């Protein structure tokens, strides 16, 4: 009798250590289900067994990429197969290595491998999954990877280390939340950002737009970016070092080792970044004022923009033991130094203004699948962090873009108005303490029904102190506390032979804002120091739905909706001197109705060709949107701004993405996104006419397009080597930087092109890469017309050892 074994490789939740599950059905040549058939799976560190159920189905979960043996046992035979799980979409014919009964020949074995990317993108949410395998060996920052993804625009104020803002389908700023393995990145401190995490340490990046699943438990009204770090348990070491333009150095190291007998696992990683950021700037926003008051445009190098950051993390614990899939206790430390070249606009250059920061984080992680009973999964992560930063601004002279002191008609240096570069002199210290606890409990009744409960608790306290204030003034400094909790519940269902997938969820938000201000009060005629407390508490309920339907194996329709909430964060409420932000204690929470409707087609395979296409339309109907206030004055010398609420805004748009592959040698990606975000109210709350009704919000790039081409050449110069050639581009249409919509405040049309190559040596331990960015030296702008680097060159060396 001939047996046909159909195996479907599917992926499971990222909250467990595994990246994949193996599931399928066992049947004979007549298509009859084979019940109670024993199936075993084993590797060097794993051995599992199960039996096919009444429907002939079986499943193995909690699996990482790697090599396994799959064994099918019958009463009179045993079939053994070598199986390799790889992180890519493919259909592979796999043979067996031995048989004990020649009458049971398994000659029609097809293994369908569905990547995590494909599985996540078909769950109903509007989501992109960015894989980092190739980027890990190139001179590409994590933010650059994101910027090339459809519907994503990364807004960076200047060069390496400058402030970054993310725009997803017209929603930006703090409405877009960043996570590392489901933990908000804000807990790690400013030194630890997405550019601090090299792609070589990242398994994938998940970008959810508008509608966010509850496991990413934060008030991510505009969307969420979740960086999933590599979780492999094999012993390995990786390291890289790169050098490039503007004296830019970047290095990273990571390693993991596991004792197969005890399960004890040790992980460590570190990073280092440095750049002078002394690139040229030019154009209408770069001007010097002469002693006679005449203004001239100049071409100059940035002279006060150096950046340095370094950090490391170590975690110790156990993996794949009876009582835990993962248990880790870890410590993370990082620090950074950043010169500040100018304020929100480039009109006035600074010299001698800088910011220093450091952070220490202690964390605990526990994950267990099938806790107490089959189908009950639990994971919890807790984190305590102490963050410290200081902004130093004590230089009293005005400077021009050549780094020279400005002088009056008599040749005397011109002093600043307040004694510092941005205002009054300051050496402001900020101390922050953060506690973040996230717990997730899920119960899978069967393969088609699952319940999920998720909870987040975040407490934040901040105390500022300025060395330039008098002793008495420093005794009257506010204490600021911000607490929030978010609880989510979801029901996930699969129906119609798992073609229909539905996720229904609800979220409860609660926030408490507290400010304690010391003051003097007369009591019985005597001045007494007392504390005035300002408290505000808010709670909100949100809900949503995400669904997808597999029309054919290659065509999926997706739709999602969420009433989303976004609570104001500490920098928006309390201000941030280092980021030029003024406090605003009256901010209200954002509330938005977010809609997505999209499709994914493919991949279609014709001989050696493979094509896939995806698209999504979206609406964001938002009340009390929190934005950085835009100027309505004909004056670009403004250096600080508060955040404010906009009564109502409406965003509508669409995005498209195309992928083509030829013979796994030539790969082409292209995408575009267009949206329009306008003030959606004709009269304000007091009945006054809104002069900006139906106008596009300023400082929002409303049309972007990007693409890339990669060509691989195997066995070039050396056998088993691979040469990869890369080309990429980004297109950003002009946009206004304030409400006036004057040509003067419009950024230029931007078309930025990059080239690169990487050479993988035969041992696959060494990879050498070279990248040329912005090869035609175009003017590039993001936030408030702050110019980014022009042409730049970088070289990078990667080294890795696996299974040491």
Automatic annotation (TrEMBL):
Domain of life: Bacteria
Gene Ontology molecular functions: siderophore uptake transmembrane transporter activity
GO cellular component: a single term: cell outer membrane
Subcellular location(s) per record: Cell outer membrane
UniProt membrane topology term: Multi-pass membrane protein
Annotated TonB-dependent receptor plug domain residues: 124-224
Secretion signal, residue range per the UniProt entry: 1-18
Keywords: Cell outer membrane, Membrane, Receptor, Signal, Transmembrane, Transmembrane beta strand, Transport
Stated name of the protein: TonB-dependent receptor
Phylogenetic placement of the source organism: Bacteria, Pseudomonadati, Bacteroidota, Flavobacteriia, Flavobacteriales
């Amino acid at each position: 009798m001939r047996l046909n074994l159909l195996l479907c490789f599917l992926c499971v939740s990222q909250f467990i250590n595994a990246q994949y599950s193996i599931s399928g059905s066992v049947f004979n040549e007549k298509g009859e289900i084979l019940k109670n058939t024993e199936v075993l799976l084993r590797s060097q560190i794993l051995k599992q067994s199960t039996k096919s159920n009444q429907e002939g189905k079986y499943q193995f979960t909690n699996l990482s990429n790697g090599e396994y043996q799959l064994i099918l046992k019958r009463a009179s035979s045993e079939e053994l197969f070598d199986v390799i799980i790889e992180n890519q979409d493919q259909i592979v014919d796999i043979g067996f290595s031995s048989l004990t009964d020649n009458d049971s020949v398994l000659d029609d074995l097809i293994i369908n491998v569905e990547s995590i990317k494909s599985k996540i993108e078909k769950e109903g949410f509007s989501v992109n999954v960015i894989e980092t395998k190739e980027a890990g060996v190139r001179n590409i920052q994590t933010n650059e990877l994101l910027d090339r993804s459809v519907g994503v625009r990364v807004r960076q104020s200047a060069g390496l280390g400058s402030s970054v803002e993310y725009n997803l389908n017209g929603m930006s700023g703090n409405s877009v939340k960043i996570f590392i393995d489901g933990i908000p990145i804000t807990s790690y401190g400013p030194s630890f950002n997405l550019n601090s995490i090299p792609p070589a340490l990242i398994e994938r990046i998940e970008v959810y737009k508008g509608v966010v699943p509850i496991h990413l438990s934060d008030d991510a009204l505009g969307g969420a970016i979740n960086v999933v770090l590599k979780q492999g348990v094999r012993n390995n070491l990786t390291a890289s070092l790169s050098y490039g333009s503007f004296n830019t150095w970047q290095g990273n190291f990571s390693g993991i080792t596991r004792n197969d007998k005890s399960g004890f696992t040790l992980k460590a990683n570190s990073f280092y970044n440095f750049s002078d950021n002394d690139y040229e700037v030019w154009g209408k926003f770069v001007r010097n004022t002469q002693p006679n008051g005449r203004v001239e445009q100049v071409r100059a190098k940035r002279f006060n923009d150096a950046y340095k950051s370094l950090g490391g993390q170590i975690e110790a614990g156990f993996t794949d033991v009876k009582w835990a899939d993962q248990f880790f206790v870890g410590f993370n430390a990082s620090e950074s130094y950043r010169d500040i070249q100018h304020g929100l606009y480039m009109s006035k250059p600074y010299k001698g203004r800088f910011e220093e920061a450091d952070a220490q984080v202690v964390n605990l992680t526990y994950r267990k699948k099938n806790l107490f009973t089959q189908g009950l999964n639990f994971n919890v992560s807790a984190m305590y962090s102490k963050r410290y930063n200081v902004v130093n601004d004590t230089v009293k002279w005005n400077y021009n873009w050549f780094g020279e002191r400005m002088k009056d008609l008599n040749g005397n240096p011109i002093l600043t108005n307040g004694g510092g570069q941005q205002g009054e002199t300051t050496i402001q210290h900020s101390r922050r303490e953060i506690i973040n606890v996230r717990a997730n409990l899920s119960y899978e009744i069967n393969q088609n029904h699952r319940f999920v409960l998720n909870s987040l608790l975040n407490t934040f306290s901040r105390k500022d102190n300025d060395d330039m204030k008098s002793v008495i003034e420093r005794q009257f400094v506010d204490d600021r506390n911000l607490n929030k909790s978010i609880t989510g519940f979801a029901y996930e269902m699969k129906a119609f032979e798992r073609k229909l997938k539905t996720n229904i969820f609800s979220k409860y938000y609660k926030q408490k804002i507290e400010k304690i201000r010391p003051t003097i009060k007369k009591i019985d005629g005597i001045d007494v120091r007392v504390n005035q407390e300002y408290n505000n508490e808010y709670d909100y309920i949100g809900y949503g739905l995400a669904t997808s339907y597999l029309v054919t194996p290659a065509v999926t329709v997706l739709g999602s909706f969420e009433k989303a909430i976004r609570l104001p964060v500490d920098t928006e409420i309390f201000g941030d001197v280092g980021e030029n932000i003024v406090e605003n204690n009256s901010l209200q929470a954002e509330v938005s109705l977010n809609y997505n409707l999209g499709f994914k087609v493919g991949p279609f395979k014709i001989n050696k060709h493979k094509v896939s296409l995806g698209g999504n339309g979206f609406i964001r109907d938002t009340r009390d949107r929190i934005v950085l206030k835009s100027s309505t004055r004909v004056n670009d010398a403004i250096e600080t701004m508060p955040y404010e609420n906009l009564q109502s805004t409406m965003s509508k748009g669409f995005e498209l993405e195309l992928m083509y592959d030829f013979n796994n040698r030539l790969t082409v990606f292209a995408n575009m996104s267009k949206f329009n975000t306008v003030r959606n109210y004709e009269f304000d709350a007091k009945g006054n006419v809104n002069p900006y009704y139906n106008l596009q919000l300023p400082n929002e790039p409303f049309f972007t397009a990007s693409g890339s081409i990669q060509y691989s050449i195997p066995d070039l110069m050396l056998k088993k080597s691979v040469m990869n050639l890369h080309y990429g581009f980004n297109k950003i249409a002009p946009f206004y930087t304030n409400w006036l919509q004057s040509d003067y405040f419009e950024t230029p049309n931007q078309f930025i092109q990059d080239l690169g190559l990487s050479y993988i040596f035969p041992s696959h331990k060494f990879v050498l890469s070279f990248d040329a960015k912005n090869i035609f030296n175009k003017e590039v702008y993001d936030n408030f017309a702050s110019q980014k680097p022009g042409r730049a060159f970088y070289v990078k060396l990667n080294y890795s050892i696996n299974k040491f």
